[in-house]
Amino acid sequence: MMKALGIDFGEARIGISCSDDLGMFAHPHETIQVKNVDPIKRIVEISKEKKVQRIVIGMPRSLDGSYGRAAKKVKNFIKKIKSAIPEIDIQTQDERFTTTLAQRKLQDVGHTVKSSRNIIDEVAAVEILQSFLDQNSGN
Questions:
Q1: Which of 12, 104, 106, 139 is deepest in the core (most CB within 10 A)?
Q2: What is the sign of the dihedral through the CA atoms of 75, 79, 85 and 86?
Q3: Domain total of the chain
């Protein structure tokens, strides 16, 4: 496997996770506040800093598996990343239920909804990236 960055895209906040050097385990990295930071520029910086070779972005789908408006926004975001760093492999991962799963995990360790607001997107990014890593281990 290769070192990867996980992204939970949102219009206000973008959660970022990063795999270990072996590409086996995802860890929270940061939440980008879109109103304060250029997200593409920051993703480029993190990618270089962490020496990632792959980016995995959560792709929103409806319960029936179809793509909607949110998926179009993610696809446009992917185009911007590809334009900024064309040498990095970009993959998508079904992100259905990742935020709900992240909220449950945070509640399990004692976080309230209010206290987890700043890290929920990072934890969702971990879920996205870890799902991808698990599905692609051995490839």
A1: 106
A2: positive
A3: 1
Give the CATH number for residue 88: 3.30.420.140
Per-residue pLDDT of the chain (139 residues; tens, 9 = 90+): 689 999 999 999 999 999 999 889 999 999 999 999 999 999 999 999 999 999 999 998 766 767 778 889 999 999 999 999 999 999 999 886 666 666 676 566 666 555 556 677 888 899 999 999 999 876 5
Give me the domain span that covers residue 79: 4-136
Q: What is the pTM of this model?
A: 0.85
Name residue, tokens 């408006």: 69
Identify which of 87, 30, 29, 98 has the alpha carbon closest to the alpha carbon of residue 60: 98
Dist. CA 29–CA 19, nearest whole Å: 9
Q: Is 124 exposed, middle or buried (0-12, 13-18, 19+ CB in 10 A)?
A: buried
